[in-house]
Amino acid sequence: MFPIIFLCAAAGGYFLTYLYDRSTPLSVRLSAGVCTGLTLFGLICFVLASLLGLGAASIALATAAVAAPALLLIGARMRTAVGSDWRTAFRGAVRAVHHPSWRRVALLLLYFAAVIVFWHVFDRAMIVRNRAIYTGVENNLGDLPLHTSIIQSFATGDNFPPEHPEFAGARLTYPFLADFIAAVFVAAGASLRDAMFWENLALGAALVVLLHFWAQRWTGDALAAALTPALVLLNGGLGWTWLIAEAQQAKGGWRALLWNLPHDYTITPDGLIRWGNAITALLVTQRSFLLGLPLVIIVLTLWWNALDEEGPPPSNKQRGTKKRQERESDQTADVRRMAAAGAIAGLLPLAHAHSFLVVAGASTVLALLSRRWRLWFPFFIAMAALALPQILWITRGSAIETERFIGWAFGWDSRGQNLIFFWLKNTGAFIPLLVAALLWRGSRPLLAKKLLVFYLPFGFCFIIPNMIKLAPWIWDNIKILFYWYVASVPIVALLLARLWCARFWWRPLVVVLFVSMTLAGALDVWRIVSRAPEFLLFDAAKTEFARLIEETVPPRSVILHAPTYNHAVRLTGRLSFMGFEGHLWTHGLKYEGRDDALRRIYSTPHEGRALLRRERIDYVVAGPEERELMPHGDWFATEYELVGESDGYRLYKVAP
Fold first, then answer.
1. Angle, alpha carbons 266-435-204 (nearest 5°)
2. Angle between helices 222-233 and 478-502 (to 10 degrees)
3. Phi then psi for 558, rounded to 5 degrees?
4. Is the dihedral of CA 541, 546, 552, 558 positive or negative?
5. CA 323 to chain centre
6. What does the alpha-carbon distance between residue 32 and residue 21 come to, in Å, rounded to a whole number?
7. For 297-316, what is each residue's pLDDT tens digit?
């Protein structure tokens, strides 16, 4: 059933694109439709599930609602537009076959290579084999159990209204929409792995198309647009220089080393390079970012298409009726684009909160700088209408301590290094090229005034995270920093394209610069694709015990267990009294009191009985991890009912 849900959501988003933009290529419509359709479906289904539960009724109603834009085909004008797009795409495909050009071939290879890479990477994000669960992405060790617990809490744990699955009683304020969509797929019959894989693959493929089209619009240069997705997704610094020394020491030389890379190269073992790769450190591990980033790209593209700051005012000869009607039609189209951009931005708070903050901040700066400032009203009205209810819902009764998020922290995660050298190591030639592009002058400036204005607010996405801590874990500032990088990539790509076309002898330098900026990221991605790493998360004993919990413990029950990142409870959808402290700390939750209570319960029978009643804990786990916390042995065996036992794990019922 879940493929039908996916197709209905994508189709609904696709038909909605005709309401706000009539000139978009079919591939871009389909990509935007996947991202906006899935997000809209997730929001609608979440509201319905909160009222009716996540069952067949709420899923069917949400699917029907998100597919409703297909009714637009009733109108002859819509049928004509849709038919024209598909005929144009078909004729373009026929021409590409009979008269291939290097641009068409290169673009096709770009899309094909991206899909293949994403397929292999997401295939390794969660590996199920012999009743055990592994991951082939090192940065995913802590994140996969967290996302698994959120997905399962919706799919099997009836977690409505949602509580944090690792901190029972606290509202879930983590942007969970990507995980909720996967939970709907699980409830519709998909396996946990397939639900995440197909959602990730669709969003990743759509992101590549949207990045290419957006860069084409911003730069007007085909080569710069083709370079942009690669520079964004294979970002990295100078960590590849490690490879040279390692190859000299490796047994078997380069070949053996490349097929068994020992570590990542965008986050190095010495901790001096912290930038990370977009795919391996963001899109796989932080699934919300994979949903938020393409939505932001759609918004940026709509802004660009709607805001023509360079158009001259109409002359007296242009004030005729026909010209006036054309201008009014263009203005109406711009209003539609801005309203649609606002609506898409309004979907972001539960999809990816940091993306919403970036869009809200950038739109404010651009509105203040714009000569057509009235055109921003539809954007802000539409954004507020959808975003404010989500923001109020998130913040009401939140257990997050905001003081853990904000503070002075100069130099991001540089760890005392010289800031200039730190960023040169982390981004290589990227920042010098960006500065050169921004300062390029001459007979024909590299950047148009409109592009400079649009880029300005994203400069703050670099400055502010280098001065202020925006999350308990300073590295999480990357969620803002990366938008500076994304906005800067088309500018750097345009400089490379200009150098490529300027003189033949510049071309070797362009190749060297491009390779130096993408090699570290490509090595990290290749490490996953080549299946070099594999990390065990849940062995067969844990998955079997998780199955026992699902069969015996009612949804929304609170379970006490050891606060490890990969505990079997993470697979069950049940609520933990306290989960992994690393997750709770990065989410801004004050967990110290519960941590103390947890350890006293396991270590002291007399205190433990009273604390179990006070904290309203329903079940207690006594397994290998918990025995390390019980110096006096398993005292629960003489006090409480043994519900089940499996491979060294015991589950006791505490609540009457």
1. 45
2. 140
3. -100, 125
4. positive
5. 44
6. 11
7. 999 999 999 986 444 444 44
